[in-house]
Hints:
- The chain is mainly α.
- It contains three helices and no strands.
- Helix 1 (2-25) packs antiparallel against helix 2 (37-69).
Amino acid sequence: MLEIAVFVMALVYAATLPGRIAKLKAGEVPAKFAADPAAYTKRMRNEARIFSILALIWGVKDVVEVLFLRDVSGLGGVQIIVWLLIAGWFALAVALHVLRRPLDE
């Protein structure tokens, strides 16, 4: 259950990241960072990097769990859902890495 909550949180973050980057590129920053927009850019870059790394770690953890630690042969149709979740973790890690690239410019 915790894994699904973290996955949804990361998806919401990934969905809002392009809008936040567009606002940043337009010169809109939160009042907290009005004096130093570079700090806001750095913070967003680090947040995206952290979420990307965590998604990658969760994906690898699930692959190891499914292949080596858990007997999934008896799960039937649930096994497909498990592999879709694993693919989702890796796709999320790649998407966050790609989405944060405009922050490096």
